[in-house]
Write a structure and sequence with these properties.
- The complex is a heterodimer of chains A (116) and B (281).
- By secondary structure, chain A is α+β, with helices and mostly antiparallel strands.
- Chain A has three helices and five strands, in the order αββαβββα.
- In chain A, strand 4 and strand 5 form a beta hairpin.
- The longest helix of chain A is centred in the middle third of the chain and has 21 residues.
- Chain A starts with 6 loop residues before the first helix and ends in a 6-residue tail after the last helix.
- With 281 residues, chain B is of the alpha+beta class.
- Chain B has a five-stranded antiparallel β-sheet with strand order 2-1-5-4-3, sandwiched between helices.
- In chain B, strand 1 and strand 2 form a beta hairpin.
- In chain B, helix 6 runs antiparallel to helix 7 and helix 8 packs across helix 9.
- The chains are: A alpha+beta (116), B alpha+beta (281).
- Chains A and B meet through helix 2 and strand 3 of A and helix 11 and strand 3 of B.
- Strand 3 of chain A pairs antiparallel with strand 3 of chain B.
Chain lengths: 116, 281
């Protein structure tokens, strides 16, 4: 069985400081395509919610005439969700508050081509 | 006819004495079928004349039909049946506000706020009424109850203040900011396109959905309160953050503006919005 085309990207992201999990998710259905998450992270829940958030941002932006959404970050008291999408797939990262979002953002943008 | 309305209609047909007429009337009201909703509410009240919520439903339908005085009278009936009915207080406050009777509106809204501290729409309306009252008194030099002229002056001052709330923070930069209330309506700020078109309401209404989705995500993932949502589009960077009373500040900036700068502008706009809203606690 061949390795997932997303394996390299996910293992690169999971090594970033404070990252608890990273996933490739279908934007429309929120179903996990591939993931690399720490023990205790409910990947299905993260996938569904992050995909829904990204999808909503994309639809709302289109409605507001703001064009296509690229990188998205949700910052909360106890963590971050970062997402970037292309061709119906969304690359999602769940990170602790201490995570270096600048680095995660850079790595996610660089990895975008793998979603094509 | 929506599935919900059809289902509720069938249920009511099976049992005409059922209280389901209230759900049906509300569904009709929300779908804009006000004549039908009015008929359903009247028929229901024939069987349940002492049901406060049924009178409240009728009042809300009346308001949507623009029949303010009839709505007020209906809410008055609600208060006779249920003196602590928050919806009636809120509704009466709204009607009195529309009629320019600010002091009376304030009384009803503050009573409603006392009974339901969690309803941000009451808090928002109360702040607006209190701000208008304060400015109307200033316009009248504090001489007696403010009249129509003072009220108009107060409204103009509030509109101007709201429009320019973020102006000094934004300067001449390539960015814009809005304060949106819990329903996504613009409370302050402006969103003007490059063509000079004011699209504040459209943008506000569209982007409120992102806040709702963010709230859902932090709740289910136990991430605590949300602090910001920032995303980049081909044309702009959009940043959202919560303010008091479930309101939200939105900053949009051109792609040439650095992400970190957008965050700083967002933080300053949130502080400004919070101070402005809290001026009239």
């Amino acid at each position: 069985m061949s390795a997932s085309p997303f394996e390299g990207v996910l293992s690169l992201l999971i090594r970033q400081r404070g990252v608890q999990g990273c996933l490739v998710v279908g934007e429309a259905d929120g179903i996990v395509v591939d993931s690399n998450v720490q023990v205790g992270i409910q990947s299905n829940v993260v996938a569904a919610l992050a995909a829904a958030l990204y999808r909503k941002a994309r639809l709302c932006s289109a409605a507001a005439g703001l064009s296509t959404v690229g990188f998205l970050q949700l910052e909360a008291e106890r963590g971050h969700i970062c997402a970037i999408g292309r061709d119906g797939l969304v690359l999602v990262t769940l990170a602790e508050p201490r995570a270096h979002i600048g680095r995660i953002r850079g790595a996610m943008i660089e990895s975008l081509s793998v979603l094509a | 006819m929506s599935d919900e309305i059809r289902r509720l209609s069938e249920e009511l047909a099976r049992d005409p004495s059922s209280l389901v007429f209230m759900q049906l009337g509300e569904a009709l009201r929300r779908s804009g079928q006000l004549d039908l909703g009015l008929k359903v509410a009247h028929r229901g009240l024939e069987r349940h004349a002492h049901n406060a919520d049924a009178h409240d439903l009728l009042a809300r339908i009346r308001v949507d039909r623009g029949e303010l005085q009839e709505a007020f009278d209906e809410w008055d009936m609600v208060l006779r049946l249920a003196p602590s009915h928050v919806g009636a207080r809120k509704g009466m406050g709204y009607v009195l506000f529309k009629q320019g009777k600010l002091a009376e509106a304030e009384t009803h809204l503050s009573t409603a706020a006392t009974h339901d501290r969690g309803d941000s729409s009451i808090a928002t309306a109360l702040r607006m009424v209190r701000r208008l009252l304060r400015y109307a008194h200033v316009a009248g030099n504090g001489n007696g109850a403010p009249g129509h002229v003072e009220l108009l002056a107060a409204q103009r001052r509030v509109e101007e203040e709201a429009r320019l709330l973020f102006a000094d923070i934004l300067g001449e930069g390539e960015h814009t900011a809005l304060l949106l209330n819990a329903d996504g309506l613009v409370a302050a700020g402006l969103y003007i396109t490059a063509d000079g078109e004011d699209v504040s309401q459209d943008v506000g209404a569209a982007l409120t959905g992102v806040r709702d989705e963010a709230l859902r995500a932090v709740r289910h993932l136990d991430l605590g309160a949300w602090k910001a949502v920032v995303y980049e589009t081909d044309l702009a960077t959009v940043a959202l953050a919560p303010a008091i009373d479930e309101s939200m500040v939105l900053v949009a900036a051109g792609r040439s503006v650095p992400l970190g700068f957008v965050r700083r502008v967002l933080d300053r706009c949130v502080q400004r919005a919070t101070s402005w809203l809290e001026e009239v606690a």
